[in-house]
């Protein structure tokens, strides 16, 4: 049995543990062991964190942007130096493979790199002589205390989508990481302190629904960032704005990948495999449905089944050759297997079947094998629900118009992709598909940090997305000043004529 850690809070620059509150276990999903306990704190802890952030805000907001950026530069260097340790932390508490964990950390680092450009990103605009002798300029100023509520599936990247840019803009921050994966956020917060971040600028609290509700309702919080499932994202958005806050809430997805008859077979099969089964399908950019157009089903599906059947599943923290790790919990593994069974009962054909997978090296791990379901219909359960696991639906269509029509019927709109050699088909798909992030011969079209993570429809609630210039706009407010300086006597009704 691994040593069980007690997850501390960071409030006002001080780390502390709490007692007398319920706790929830943090598992190493690869081996099924409890490695830590997360306290389920309530409104009192959130209030203490907000108070500390409020006290830190005046001095931090007046700190020159270049000095704020220098703290982030130092943090970036420290995270680079501890890169492997951070990746191991992600693997340990989440179950990602080594490559996936490194990608999680790398994407987080890219957001810090982007936030280091705050002095340029925060520059305003000005125009002389908007009217005779009158000038106008606009500047961006911070909001105050901001908060982030993050999911379990990217322990490093998603929190780093939020607080580095928020503090670069001069805000202070309260982070509530997922109670399932708090350890990486704790490690990064400790390093932020070492990098010179003043007390109270970043605070870390733990909890479940009570803590979330306290964040949503606290009058001292000006803006909230959230990533999670669509029902929760919708609730977060509606409750947050009802309490006068800015909210950006990224939700779930049902992402479609269209395979055209002319698609490169090997690259399409590999792209589908990586998109559907990377991170064990636990990401909002995973391909949940492949639409095989025409004869593509006869060419790409056999190649897909071949590569999927060779995927090595196992404990990522013990076997560096593992290509797919565990899902987050036993309960989630059971749910995914139940959905596979239900779809099979509805008439889907499992070409590969991940139910009942046994990994001898880790018999207690939370594993589901990669599953390809053929002949899936729109009314089946795996088409209607976000499985959030290693399951790929295959739907067969006669032409591109039918494929686009099916994709656009989804309530979601996170990502969509097409594999083809035909530029006209690619352009038609890009133009007509109703999704915020589109890939052409790329299965996971997640943008780099300087572009917005731009989900549409029920995949996002709010006006300004995470990442890129939209994140700068989200964490700041405009102030526009119109200026006139009078010459002697100008504007006076008593001036000599």
Task: Report the sheet-strand fraction.
Answer: 15-25%
> What is the second-level CATH architecture of the largest domain?
3-Layer(aba) Sandwich
- The shape, in one word, is globular
Class of secondary structure makeup: alpha/beta
| Mean of all residue-level pLDDT scores | 96
Strand segment tally: 21
Give start-end ranges of low-pLDDT stretches.
none
Do you know the CATH topology of the largest domain? Aldehyde Dehydrogenase, Chain A, domain 1
CATH class of the largest domain: Alpha Beta
* Largest sheet composition: 7 strands, mixed
The CATH homology group name of the largest domain? Aldehyde Dehydrogenase, Chain A, domain 1
- How many domains would you count in the coordinates? 2
Output the number of helix runs: 16
List key phrases describing it.
497 residues; alpha/beta; Aldehyde Dehydrogenase, Chain A, domain 1; Aldehyde Dehydrogenase, Chain A, domain 2; 2 domains; seven-stranded mixed sheet; six-stranded mixed sheet; 16 helices; 21 strands; 38% helix; globular
Explain how this protein is built.
This protein has 497 residues and is of the alpha/beta class. The protein is built from 16 helices and 21 strands. 38% of the residues lie in helices and 22% in strands. Helix 1 packs across helix 8, helix 3 packs antiparallel against helix 7 and helix 4 packs parallel to helix 6. It starts with a strand and ends in a 13-residue tail after the last strand.
């Amino acid at each position: 049995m691994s040593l069980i850690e007690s997850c501390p809070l960071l409030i006002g620059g001080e780390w502390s543990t709490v007692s007398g509150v319920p706790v929830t276990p943090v598992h190493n999903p690869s081996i099924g062991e409890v490695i830590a306990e997360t306290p389920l704190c309530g409104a009192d802890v959130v209030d203490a964190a907000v108070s500390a952030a409020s006290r830190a805000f005046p001095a931090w907001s007046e700190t020159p942007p270049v000095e704020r950026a220098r703290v982030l530069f130092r943090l970036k260097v420290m995270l680079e130096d501890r890169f492997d340790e951070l990746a191991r932390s992600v693997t340990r508490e989440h179950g990602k493979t080594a490559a996936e964990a490194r990608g999680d950390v790398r994407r987080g680092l890219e957001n810090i790199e982007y936030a280091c450009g705050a002095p340029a990103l925060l520059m305003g605009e000005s125009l002389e002589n908007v009217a005779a002798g009158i000038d106008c300029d606009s500047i961006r100023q911070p909001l105050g205390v901001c908060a982030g509520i993050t999911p379990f599936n990217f322990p490093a990247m998603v929190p780093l989508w939020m607080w580095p840019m928020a503090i670069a803009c001069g805000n202070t921050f309260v982070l509530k990481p997922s109670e399932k994966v708090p350890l990486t956020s704790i490690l990064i917060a400790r390093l932020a302190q070492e990098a010179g971040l003043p007390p109270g600028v970043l605070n870390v609290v733990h909890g479940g629904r009570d803590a979330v509700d306290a964040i949503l309702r606290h009058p001292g919080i000006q803006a909230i960032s959230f990533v999670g499932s669509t029902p929760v994202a919708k609730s977060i958005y509606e409750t947050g704005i009802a309490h006068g806050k800015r909210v950006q809430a990224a939700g779930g997805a049902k992402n479609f990948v269209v395979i055209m008859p002319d698609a490169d077979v090997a690259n399409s099969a590999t792209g589908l495999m990586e998109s559907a089964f990377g991170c064990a399908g636990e990401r909002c950019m995973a391909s949940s449905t492949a639409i095989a157009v025409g004869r593509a089903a006869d060419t790409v599906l056999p190649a897909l089944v071949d590569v999927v059947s060779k995927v090595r599943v196992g404990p990522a923290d013990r076997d560096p050759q593992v290509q797919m790790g565990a899902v987050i919990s036993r309960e989630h593994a059971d749910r995914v297997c139940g959905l596979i069974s239900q779809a099979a009962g509805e008439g889907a054909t499992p070409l590969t079947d991940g139910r009942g997978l046994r990994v001898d090296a880790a018999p207690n791990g939370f594993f589901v094998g990669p599953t390809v379901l053929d002949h899936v219909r729109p009314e089946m359960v795996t088409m209607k629900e976000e499985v959030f696991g290693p399951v790929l639906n295959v739907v067969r269509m006669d032409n591109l118009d039918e494929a686009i029509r099916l994709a656009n019927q989804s309530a979601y709109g996170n990502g969509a992709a097409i594999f083809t050699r035909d530029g006209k088909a690619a352009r038609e798909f890009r133009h007509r598909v109703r999704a915020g992030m589109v890939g052409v011969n790329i299965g996971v079209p997640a943008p780099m940090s300087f572009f917005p993570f731009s989900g549409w429809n029920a995949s996002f609630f709010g006006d300004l997305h995470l990442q890129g210039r939209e994140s700068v706009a989200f964490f700041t407010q405009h102030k526009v000043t119109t200026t006139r300086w009078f010459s002697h006597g100008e504007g006076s009704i008593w001036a000599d004529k």
